[in-house]
Task: structure prediction
Amino acid sequence: MSDSKNSTCDEQAFNQFFKSHAKLLRSYLYYKFGDLDQAEDIVQDSFIKLWNNCAKVPLDKAKSYVYTIATNLGISIARHQQVKFKHQKYITQRKSDVTNESPEFVMLEKEYMEKLKNAIADLPDRQREVFLLSRIDKKTYREIAELSNVSVKAIEKLMHKALVTLRKKIGNI
Amino acid sequence: MFDDKKDDIFLSRWVNGDLSPEELNEFQSHPEYEYYMKILAGADTLDLTEYDVDTALRNIKSNKQTSSNKTSKPVIKLWPYLAVAASIAIIFGLFLFNTNDSFATSYGEQLTVILPDGSEMILNAKSEASFDKNNWDANRNISLEGEAYFKVKKGSKFTVTTKNGDVSVLGTQFNVQSQASFFEAVCYEGKVSVTSKQENTILTAGKAYRNITNTPPEHWTFVAQEPSWITNTSSFRSVPLHYVFKELEDQYNISINIKNPDININTIYTGTFPNNDMNIALKTVFSTLGLQYQLLQNGKTVVVEN
Result:
């Protein structure tokens, strides 16, 4: 591989890098800060920053670079506006899972899903982050641990806690 | 339920399929199992609205060409504006709040200043006064160097601050003279209080106070209606001669050179001289002292011989 291929200044390399990381970064920021539109804005700003500084950031450092920038941006925004986790227009249900149910069952499911989503929105930030990265983005505990620079064990504990918290919130439906 | 378990990652392992067959069996027969199963099943149907990666990439491409500032967050963009706003505020503040008005007279000048409350201040030659006009109602305070005559309207405490002491009144007419080592307050009407470094004293109409460094403070009475300099006459009552010379210098912008070392500039002098005719003034002062003087060609220097 030539030098330019290793650099984020290379257009191809940059595009490739964006396509393989933008989606997860967007989810990560959304779960962390609660607003998906805002998360997409931050993703865009972070990658623009990466591009503008591409000469200083080699490809193998680029991932932690954009995650750091994005997280800092998110924090500085969150400091100014308290965002409650928004799920209404962002979290949907996979169509295939509901089509075959009888109408009555779907009704009950809808009610249950509403309750579940609210309970997830009310989770402590870190628990929600881990739970959704695991369930929606299908990330392994190891992958999640790498994103936020903590141990796998810490992620497993958060996941366990998240389930216990949800169970308490939802009650016996 | 499971928060009291020793194993604080039990549910994580279950989600991951990492439980041993025995553990799983035990859990499945547990009444809580179906609830956790339902949560997990429900959560697994959740999805996030689609992310159009290509559009997002195109957005970045179009943005990065111009400038990253265009899309950066308002928190960041705010700073330059804040800085500009702050600078403007500071500049404004300097003009707005630095409202000290100051007045100065040069040699031989007099200046009548009407203060914000209608009180009058008449500055004698070579004097300087300043005050804060915005804060005048709350704080009638004037800093003075030199000599001025005040006609004060009734109101709150009116204070003249000088290096040698303060004179304060409620509503009256008085004269304050403060030179390097000379401090004199003369009250023409009403009552003034004088606070000098040496003492506090109350002057009523017709009373005067003077303090010359190295001599004891003096009190005396008089009958004038206003200071003589208002009507262009400088008058002295038992004043060391060098203050008289100083006044001549201030009124006529001349310098007085004393050639003869025998002349005692601390001689006590009582008398007057006009402020609008230099020749008469010089003649008046020096002839009464029996001194010869000479006005040099430049018209600015007076040489005194015996």
